[in-house]
Amino acid sequence: MNGVSGRMGYRQHLVRSILAIRDQGGIELPDGSKVTVRPLLVGRSETKLAEIAAQHGIEDWTTDLDAALADPKWEIYADFLVTKARASALRKAIAAGKAIYTEKPTAEGVEEALELARLAQAAGVKSGVVHDKLYLPGLQKLKRLIDSGFFGRILSVRGEFGYWVFEGDWQAAQRPSWNYRVADGGGIIVDMFPHWSYVLENLFGEVTSVYAQAAVHISDRWDEKGEHYDADAEDAAYGIFEIEGGAGEQIIAQINSSWTTRVDRGELVEFHVDGTHGSAVVGLHKARIQHRNATPKPVWNPDLEDSHDYDADWQPVPANDVFLNGFRQQWEEYLTSYVLGTDYAFDLLAGARGVQLAIAGLESSRTGAKVALEELSL
Predict the structure, then answer these.
(1) What local confidence, expressed as pLDDT, does residue 235 receive?
(2) Average pLDDT over residues 219-225
(3) Which residue from 20, 17, 24, 11 is spatially nearest to 52, judged by alpha carbons?
(4) Taking the C-alpha atoms of 273, 274, 277 and 281 in order, what is their torsion angle to the nearest 10 degrees?
(5) CA-CA distances (angstroms) from residue 248 to 82, 309, 376?
(6) pTM beyond cutoff 0.85
């Protein structure tokens, strides 16, 4: 596990996924047997690794990635590094014959992302790319609604994601400063468009084009040491995505992504889906629906105050299930697929499609044009 000293690598992948699986005694397979996990922590700081290992009863850690990759005892390489460092480490791991499980984006460019997918295929190693938002309780409820035919024909999707990230002067920023520097691989498009790629693709259909407008709304920020720097990576992006639905119908998605917005919604991310038979609003956990039989009939009249309670027209969707932490659930699926040797859909090729959408979004913002997406293949 390379990069566990970072926030996401530590909290979601190490503590809430791998250690949770270890502490429960492993994952039960279909035949009743169990597969267990043993983590090896890899990073640059001996002090940080030793502290994490001691805190969680982990025996193995090292600052020597090459030695770890050369040891056949360790079967899977998991990468949670910053984007700029990821591709070179993945190449080493693939060359060493390790199975791959990695955060996204998998690379800084489409060709590099495709190269990694081809290398993994040629080496015969299983690859997995984190698709965590598909496992959110709200999106799992949305998937159930789609599969049940609740929406009829889906027309459009509107997404709102983001929150206010403090500039770092009078109040410390809650995101690392590299996120706001182009040279360090920052920018909200590279960070979030790979997420929107797999969410839209797996829930609604293939994304065929994107029009995006990026913005650096706040250029003056202060880093972790309190020193001023010029933020040149976009902190907001406004995207329109064309989707080819299951029956060949066009679905339009609009998603705003912003680290410069103050939240006035139920959760930090919400998707509003409209269909001919019904609509839904879903977030991280909650989901509400409105069937066409329960849809009010508004009449536009700006001269009179509208006293209708539109919020009351929506009905909550029950959980009807126990939802695991999304990162852990995907880890369990990947590990099960690895042990059983079954196909795994969220591989490095799927990761390359996420990179493709991000690069296309940046190109669209730069040129002002809608950018079509070609089908990627190995």
Answers:
(1) 98
(2) 97
(3) 11
(4) 40
(5) 38, 36, 19
(6) yes
